[in-house]
């Protein structure tokens, strides 16, 4: 795998320095740790910078490479985030390479799957906080309890669950219906390890929904122990920077054009630009009583095309 040249580390650190209220940084890819040089010369210095500044960090990795490179990062990292949507190596082979540019054989996929599982177990045992994320889609919506059990057995501290939306990298996938989604979440809540923290995000169920079944699910999620429903950070308190081009996006999944570039603007300026963007105005609602910041753009586009959320209010 080859990559284009990265923006110099000093430029990135300088831009981060200019953000007054920076609380978290996520390093994502592809697989950001694919090149050991990037691990040592880029990722480690950013993590050390963040640790010194008291900023929390997350790396999104598939953990399919040698354990040693992850052990280099672990002492400076708050959360190692992995995707886990599988019941076994065959599942991984079928699901994990849908968007791959080259064909990956079963043997290779099996080796990668086993390394991911073993690395997750080793890093968890070593004390690293590993958070595994599963997507709810047409392939997984009936398998979530078993996927959850495997995540628990690998020692992960948190299970994140998000519906999958039609976006640039998953535009070919059929959507699960809201009824299927609701049933899938109830099934997972019924069977989960109640001692493990579960973090749900980008759910399409809101306290202002007229359908009683939606409000009942919202209520259940509020009342379950060790369950959090996260407000969507994209465009609320997060921007996404490409370390190759310097372009800044409101979301790393939607097909919206960049909001600006770190070569021309400060990050605070780019964020202010987003706040007055018409797209943001469509979903920028806020109900204090429900602790809700409204839907993200993909959610609104997928399930609520005709709804003006600014005219709604929480009912519970
Ligand atoms: S913030 Fe928006 S989406 Fe959330 S309950 Fe209120 S009106 Fe509905």
TrEMBL record:
PANTHER family xref list: 7-CARBOXY-7-DEAZAGUANINE SYNTHASE, PROTEIN YFKA-RELATED
Alphabetical keyword list: 4Fe-4S, Iron, Iron-sulfur, Metal-binding, S-adenosyl-L-methionine
Domain YfkB-like as annotated: residue spans: 164-313
Radical SAM core domain mapped to chain residues: 6-95
Record-linked InterPro entries: Aldolase_TIM, rSAM, rSAM_sf, rSAM_YfkAB, YfkB
Designated name of the protein: Radical SAM/CxCxxxxC motif protein YfkAB
Pfam families: Radical_SAM, YfkB
């Amino acid at each position: 795998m080859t990559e284009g040249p990265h923006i110099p580390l000093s430029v990135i650190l300088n831009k981060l320095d200019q953000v007054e209220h920076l609380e978290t940084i996520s390093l994502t890819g592809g697989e950001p740790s694919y090149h050991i040089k990037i691990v040592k010369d880029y990722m480690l210095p950013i993590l050390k910078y963040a640790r010194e500044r008291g900023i929390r960090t997350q790396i999104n990795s598939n953990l399919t490479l040698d354990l040693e490179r992850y052990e280099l990062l672990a002492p400076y990292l708050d959360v190692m985030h992995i995707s886990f949507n599988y019941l076994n190596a065959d599942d991984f082979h079928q699901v994990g390479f849908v968007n791959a540019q080259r064909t990956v054989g079963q043997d290779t996929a099996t080796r990668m799957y086993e390394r991911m599982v073993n690395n997750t177990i080793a890093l968890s045992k070593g004390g690293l906080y590993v958070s595994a994320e599963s997507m709810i889609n047409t392939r997984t919506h009936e398998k979530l309890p078993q996927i959850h059990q495997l995540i628990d057995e690998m020692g992960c501290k948190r299970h994140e669950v998000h519906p999958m939306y039609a976006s640039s990298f998953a535009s070919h996938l059929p959507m699960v219906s809201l009824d299927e989604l609701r049933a899938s979440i109830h099934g997972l809540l019924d069977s989960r390890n109640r001692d493990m923290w579960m973090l749900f995000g980008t759910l399409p169920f809101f306290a202002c929904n007229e359908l009683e079944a939606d409000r009942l699910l919202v209520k259940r999620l509020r009342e379950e122990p060790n369950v959090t429903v996260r407000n969507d950070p994209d465009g609320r308190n997060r921007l996404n920077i490409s370390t190759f081009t310097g372009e800044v996006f409101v979301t790393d999944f939607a097909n919206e054009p960049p909001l600006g570039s770190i070569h021309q603007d400060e990050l605070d300026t780019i964020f202010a630009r987003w706040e007055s963007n018409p797209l943001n105005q469509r979903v920028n609602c806020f109900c204090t009583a429900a602790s809700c910041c409204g839907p993200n753009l993909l959610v609104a586009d997928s399930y609520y095309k005709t709804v003006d959320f600014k005219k709604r209010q929480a009912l519970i």
